[in-house]
Known about the structure:
mainly alpha
Amino acid sequence: MGKKKIHGGKSTKGNNNMLKQKIVKTMWILFGLAVASILMLFVLISVGAIGYLPEISQLENPIDKYASQVISSDKELLFTYSQSDNNRIFVDYSDLSPHLIDALIATEDIRYYSHSGIDFISVGRAVVKTLLLNRESSGGGSTITQQLAKLLYSPPANNKLQRVFQKPVEWVIAAKLERFYTKDEIINLYLNKYDFNYNAVGIESAARTYFNKTPKELNIEEAAMLIGMLKNSSLYNPVRRPEVTRNRRNVVLTQMEK
């Protein structure tokens, strides 16, 4: 008797290959649609169709409220007075301690001088840790410029979803800020804007409030403490939580050593 030929194996293998090709093709289509949607989102944000985008005049003069200063005849600052939450004394970049700059970049944005407002490496790391590894602390993906955009133009978010929708707007604003200002000017704007609690708005007021010094006089430990407060000035509060604040300062010092 002759042997029967079995063709089922080849047919099954061919079907499997076709199924794999369809799956790969579908995944590429979905990926293309996702990329196109993201690009369209940023285009709509950049033209002001979605979210709030500040006017050019606001970008050129983002901080317009400073405290009035009373200075003695020998040029000593006696006191300041201001409206609520605006006890801010402007300080120029040249009057900042180098320790402040080093601590800020080492802790908040290690690739600050090599990106144009968005650090895609940090964003990718944050996405992987948050979505894939389900970690609440993802190490952060915001650059100094993005943090400045948030301080200047994003109202406090009521929930995580609202915060997610604020991010793309801040990316667009950050890119625009990078076109209007130098890197040194962005750092200066950021440190002049941040609220360090106890009506110490801006680095000049913070240095005087916590150490009775000017920003230029701060030593490395003092600079590290103030920069550590940028993560959350209510949590890392040297008056109410000195030990927690000290630990955060040590983290900043460790980052500076790397």
